[in-house]
Design goal:
The chain is of the alpha/beta class and 415 residues long. The chain has 15 helices and 17 strands. Helix 1 packs across helix 13 and helix 14 crosses helix 15.
């Protein structure tokens, strides 16, 4: 009987794993389940809308469904619409590839003030995730806490002029929100020295293309480490760039210790420097780009199972984890490929060791539930790309209800 694998999550880590499994074992049945009616997860809702080159990875993921035989089962929440136990009963192997959705906390006084916003929450709203909260008011003085690529993405998007967003897939509402933001100053702050920053130097150099800004870099420091030198040189290359009205300032070696506010809204951030000095900076919004963590029922299930071989992504016999869900928010989208190939080899070896008499159905019953398959997604994709504005490459459908309506168009009512 054909062996079957269910992958929970159709983002890059899930798609790369499915690719690796089907390349090595074309007869395998591989289903990718997603809580959303649309696939590709982080690529669609995590990659910045002005980085369309990165988003182009979805073209190779299309071949996964169109040529390799994988199935997309969208609009299914594991733990609600179907239990993880039932899923593991139905498939020979189940893999959690759900990524990380919760913003990490600072754990300092004042974190609950209005205007203190996690980067994940803000980008989900900017990128029109259907479950996102409304876009918040930021005001003129914005602090971005963190110095990784997510922080640089936020900085770049908040600093761009409307014309500089041409060719992106940023929607009309977020575009209007940015145009009306009234931001005059953005401070991007790292706890560590510049030499230990987490950003990609290429992304920092990209800031030199911004036209409406003035950039300052304070105390970039020095290093003899080759990788650190690249980061410091990238910062020095943009220091002093521009003479525009929006001021961008890089600061390093500052640890946040408290946030203060008036009338329930943040107005000032307090830091301690590496030398022990106290530093206070005014802010009308404080954006936390300090990493992500898991939450929800799947996290609890994974913790209950424990980890027989966590380094290899094995949670229990026939139960695995991959991508950021397994190793934390580290690595780029392409780096997920190597992780997926390693786990695929382990899963296939485990499947080969299973008794040949094992007979699992390799499918789940979701009677009465509005499941969206790959063809439904292609209808949504066509609706988004068929007639975008002149300066955009697509207009995302931003609500589940509209996605489901489009996905079900022209279907047989009896299905």
């Amino acid at each position: 009987m054909t062996k079957s694998v269910a992958i929970v999550g159709s983002g890059p880590s899930g798609c790369y794993l499915a690719q690796a499994l089907l390349k090595a074992s074309p007869g395998l049945r591989v289903d990718l389940l997603d809580s959303l009616p649309v696939p590709y997860g982080l690529v669609r809702y995590g990659v910045a809308p002005d980085h369309q080159g990165t988003k182009a990875v979805t073209r190779q993921f299309e071949r996964l469904f169109e040529r390799q035989g994988a199935r997309f089962i969208g609009n299914v929440i594991v733990g609600k619409d179907i239990s993880l136990e039932d899923l593991r009963t139905a498939y020979d192997a189940v893999v959690l590839a759900v990524g990380l959705s919760a913003d990490r906390r600072l754990g300092i006084p004042g974190e609950e003030l209005e205007g203190v916003v996690g980067a994940g929450a803000l980008t989900r709203a900017l990128y029109e995730h259907p479950d996102a909260d409304p876009l918040p008011a930021l005001g003129p003085h914005v602090i971005i806490m963190g110095n990784g690529n997510v922080a640089i993405d936020l900085l770049r998007l908040l600093a761009k002029t409307p014309d500089e967003l041409a060719g992106s897939d940023l929607g009309p509402a977020p575009s209007d929100w940015l145009a009306r933001s009234g931001i005059s100053d953005i401070e991007i702050i790292g706890r560590s020295p510049a030499a230990q920053a987490k950003f990609d130097p290429v992304m920092v150099k990209e800031l030199a293309k911004l036209s409406g800004v003035t950039i300052r870099v304070l105390e970039a420091g020095a290093s003899e480490d080759p990788e650190a030198v690249k980061k410091i040189e990238a910062l020095r290359s943009i220091d002093g760039h521009g003479s525009g009205p929006r001021r961008l300032t890089f600061r390093f070696g500052l640890t946040p210790i408290a946030l203060e506010g008036k009338h329930g809204r943040v107005t000032e951030a307090h830091f301690r420097s590496a030398k022990g000095d106290l530093v206070a900076l005014p802010c009308s919004a404080f954006l936390k780009a300090i990493g992500f963590e898991t939450d929800g029922v799947l996290r609890r299930e994974a913790l209950i199972e424990g980890a027989l071989d966590a380094a290899n992504g094995v949670l229990a016999p026939g139960f695995y984890a991959t991508g950021w869900f397994r190793r934390g928010p580290r690595g780029t989208i392409p780096e997920n490929r190597a992780d997926a190939q390693h786990l695929a080899a382990r899963i296939l070896a485990d499947l080969n060791d299973q008794p040949s008499t094992s007979q699992k159905p390799g499918t789940v019953q979701l009677n009465g539930h509005a499941v969206v398959g790959y063809e439904g997604w292609k209808k949504i994709d066509a609706a988004e790309t068929s007639n975008p504005p002149e300066n955009r490459c697509r207009v995302k459908i931003s609500t589940r209800a509209e996605m489901l309506l489009i996905a079900r168009q022209n279907e047989d009512p009896g299905q």
